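Give me the fold.
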Amino acid sequence: VGQHVASGITTDEAARVALKDFLGLHVPLTVLGEARVEDIVENELITFYVGEADSVPSLNQKHSERGRYLTIRELQELVRRQQATPHLVAALRLIEQRQ
């Protein structure tokens, strides 16, 4: 789930709201790390979070038309084929460092 942080709120607040709005989840989040994503379009400092749920959440159709869950291997394959966004590449690097 991705969310830009509006003025006056923290990244933690933005992450909790996005998780609730997009997936209906209210779970504790832990900061995985931060990364700067820079390309011809973006120049963003991104904070990545990790959380765990007891079941697979459903995507809120009001906030996103489509989505699917991918394994780490599937994500790595997207990166290898250069079919991943810079944000996904940065997130995957942090996840791999954690393992």
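The beta strands are 30-38, 43-50.
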